[in-house]
Amino acid sequence: MLQAGKAFDRVAGYEDEMSDICAAWTERAILLAGDRRVDEAAKASRDPDAHCRPLLAKYPWDFYLRVPIVRADLSVGKLLFDNARFAEARARLQFASDWGQREASTLLARMYRDGLSVAADATRAEALDSQALCRRPRKPRSVSPSRGIRPRNQGQGPGHRARGQPPAP
Asked: What is the separation of C-alpha 64 from the centre of its chain, rounded to a whole number of angstroms?
C-alpha cells in the first residue's frame, strides 16, 4: 500500500514526485474499477481525494497531475453508477465532466433526467447532454520538420497553390 501522505506534509513546494505518487494511487483505483471491485475501488480513490485534489487545486496547470485524477474519477464513477450507487458516483462524474469527459457528462445527464439520487431536472440534463455533444476530438496533426506542426491535409486538394504563388484567376 502506498503511504506517502506524510511526504506531502513535509514538502514546502511542488515536486515532480508528487504527481508520480498521485499517478500510482489513481492507477490502483482504475485497476480495481476495471476488475469491478466496487468497494475496494471506492476506498482506493480516497487517497488521491485527500492528497492529490488539494495539490491539483493549487497547480491546475499540471497535466501529469490532472489526467490520472480525472481518469480515476471517471472509472470509479462509472463503476459506482453501474452498481446503482448514484450518490457516490455523482461527485466523481461531476469532476470528470468538468474536465471534459463526455461519458461522465452523459451519465450525469441521465442521473438528472431520471432523478437518480438527485432532484429530477430536465434543464440540467439537457445542458449536460449538449455539453457532451459539443466536445469534439481534435483533428490529428502532422509534423513537418521545415514548417513545424500544422493540421493534416492543409493546403492540399482543389485550389491548392504553392506558397508565394498568386491565386489562380
From this structure: 11
